[in-house]
Design goal:
about 110 residues; about 60% helix; globular
């Protein structure tokens, strides 16, 4: 067990629960223990490419945070999860072709 000391937990949760994060975790940032199970190790998670908040991406980060803030009373519906996924793709400047590849790959793995 380890803790990740960060100031902005919602932003971090939004990133970690996105399709992009799922793709990255499946492809090098964690150990796969079995079908659908991941073993996060501190040394791998420390290498995870977290984008820092700045003037250029603050609006996208605020949108991620607001979606999560408004969903704590309920579970996150698929449409909201898709919106978070799209925002995270935008935050990391993922191209349409890359989005399509990642989405298709994640569908095959479910």
């Amino acid at each position: 067990t380890f803790l990740v000391p960060i100031k902005n937990n919602l932003y971090f949760l939004g990133i970690l629960n996105s399709k992009l994060s799922e793709y990255l975790l499946d492809n090098g940032y964690c150990n796969l223990i079995g079908p659908g199970s991941r073993g996060l190790q501190k040394n791998l998670l420390e290498q995870f490419p977290m984008i820092q908040r700045n003037e250029d991406n603050n609006k996208i980060i605020e949108q991620i945070e607001n979606i999560l803030k408004n969903s704590f009373d309920n579970h996150i519906e698929a449409s909201l999860q898709n919106e978070i996924d799209d925002l995270v793709f935008d935050l990391y400047e993922i191209t349409q072709d890359e989005k399509k590849y990642i989405n298709n790959l994640m569908l095959k793995n479910t």
